[in-house]
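Hi support team,

I've been running sequence recovery on a batch of backbones for a student project. Most finish fine, but this one hangs at about 90% for roughly twenty minutes before it completes. I'm not sure whether the input is malformed or the queue is just slow. I've pasted the structure tokens below so you can try to reproduce it. Let me know if you need the job ID as well.

Thanks,
M.K.
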């Protein structure tokens, strides 16, 4: 281990309780230090580490939470097999400027059942919201609780979870939380596959075929001028479904703000294609931006 990583490992605090976390956070607030927060469910990869890098560039103190949130899993098998390896995560974080790792147990985050029901309207009735009922309510429950514990000035989220980001922005607005949500670019493997903790669950042959998802999305960008929205959609679905072991759950071409499907390219200035694909039992998501005008970037 390089010397700075060993040093960072000693300096980095690993905290499991809310009371300990809050005493540090209140000290930081007194010194006017800006707190950057990266919420994760662990099984960290370069995508997470790039969020930590961006947080450390923008803030004085970086807090990373590692918590596999049970309330956002609508499938108990998915929760059970979600990869967990705290020590490997801690070692990975020691390579970056992470000051605090907050790794609470379930009872610490939910001393009592969280019965709150959020309403994100049309944002949660499509795509992930449609196929994973209750998922975004669970995400909103945990993220709002974590925000309350960490009191971040800025929180960093990857654009791979495009719909999650929209829901978290809506939640922050609804609850009037004083935190800036910072969207961060998708980090990809060399072959284009969007980095995800679930990638490590893929078999060798699934892993070999999975980059077809990103490749197809990227290639489809070349056909916007000559293809209708519907035709492009069907072509993407057919191409991915023709790959052994891949099955598209949905592919929607939507307005990037409202997440509602568009049927013509000129219906919005910001158009995103969002996809969920099963590789065996492993569900992968990705997205591509077809059109975003400069004035709203
Ligand atoms: O994106 C994730 O890893 C999770 O949904 C999050 C935001 C950490 C909430 O559990």
């Amino acid at each position: 281990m390089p010397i700075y990583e060993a040093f960072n490992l000693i300096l980095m605090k690993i905290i499991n309780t809310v009371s300990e976390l809050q005493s540090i956070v209140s000290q930081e607030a007194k010194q006017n230090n800006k707190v950057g927060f990266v919420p994760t469910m662990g099984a960290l990869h370069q995508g997470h580490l790039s969020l930590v890098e961006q947080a450390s560039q923008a803030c004085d103190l970086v807090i990373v939470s590692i918590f596999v949130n049970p309330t956002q899993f609508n499938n108990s098998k998915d929760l059970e097999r979600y990869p967990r390896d705290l020590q490997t995560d801690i070692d990975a974080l020691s390579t970056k400027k992470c000051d605090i790792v907050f790794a609470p147990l379930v009872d610490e985050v939910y001393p009592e059942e969280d019965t709150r029901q959020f309403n994100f309207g049309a944002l949660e009735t499509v795509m992930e919201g449609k196929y994973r009922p209750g998922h975004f309510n669970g995400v909103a429950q945990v993220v709002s609780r974590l925000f309350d514990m960490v009191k971040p000035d800025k929180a960093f989220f990857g654009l791979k979870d495009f719909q999650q980001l929209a829901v978290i922005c809506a939640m922050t607005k609804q609850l009037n939380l004083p935190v800036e949500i910072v969207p961060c670019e998708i980090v990809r493997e060399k072959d284009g596959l969007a980095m995800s903790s679930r990638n490590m669950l893929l078999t060798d042959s699934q892993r070999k075929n999975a980059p077809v998802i990103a490749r197809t999305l990227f290639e489809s960008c070349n056909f916007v001028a000559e293809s209708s929205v519907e035709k492009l959609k069907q072509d993407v679905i057919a191409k991915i479904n023709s790959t052994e072991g891949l099955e598209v759950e949905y592919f929607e071409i939507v307005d990037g703000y409202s997440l509602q499907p568009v049927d013509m390219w000129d219906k919005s200035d910001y158009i995103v294609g969002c996809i969920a694909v099963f590789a065996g039992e492993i569900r992968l998501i990705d997205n591509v931006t077809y059109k975003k005008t400069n004035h709203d970037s």
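--
Follow-up from support: It reproduced on our side and the slowdown came from queue contention, not your input. The first strand starts at residue 13 and ends at 15. No action needed from you.
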